[in-house]
C-alpha cells in the first residue's frame, strides 16, 4: 500500500479555461513542465522549505525583487503560461483576454473538473495534516455502509459557503470524501 505524502509533480494536473465554462487539462508533458515551474517559483534557488500544497505564490508586482520566471511553452509551442500570474497567452498572435490556468489537486466526482485552487489547497493541507505518513488501503467506492457496521472517526471541515468536505476514517482505515 502507498503511504500518504505530498503529491509529486507528476501527480498534479494543470488546466486552462478558454470558453469560461469548463476547465480543460493540459497534456501530461505540458502539465508537468508547468508544475515544475510552479514549484521553482515557490522555492527559488532551493531556499526555504515551503510545500507546494500551501498555496499559490502571490502574483508578482512589477517592482518585485523576485525575478519573474520564464514562461512555459505549451500546446505545441503556440501558447505560453505565466505561472506567477496564472494565465496563458498565444505566442504568435494578439489576444485581448488572457486564458486563466489553474492547478488541480482535488476534483469534482463524476466530472473530473478541478475544485477551485484555494479550496483544493485547503483540502490538501487538511488531508496531509490528518493522514500524512499513514498507509492508504484499497477500498470499494460503491460501499455505502461502513465495513463490519463499525463507525469510524468523522472529520468535518467547512472550506467555503457551499463546500463541505467530510473525511471518514472507518474501522478498516478507509478514506471517503463527500
Automatic annotation (TrEMBL):
Transmembrane segments: 159-177
Keyword Transmembrane helix set for record: yes
Region (Disordered): 47-68
Cellular component aspect of the GO annotation: cytoplasm
InterPro entries: PA-PLA1
Keywords of the record: Membrane, Transmembrane, Transmembrane helix
Protein name: DDHD domain-containing protein
Lineage of the species this protein comes from: Eukaryota, Metazoa, Chordata, Craniata, Vertebrata
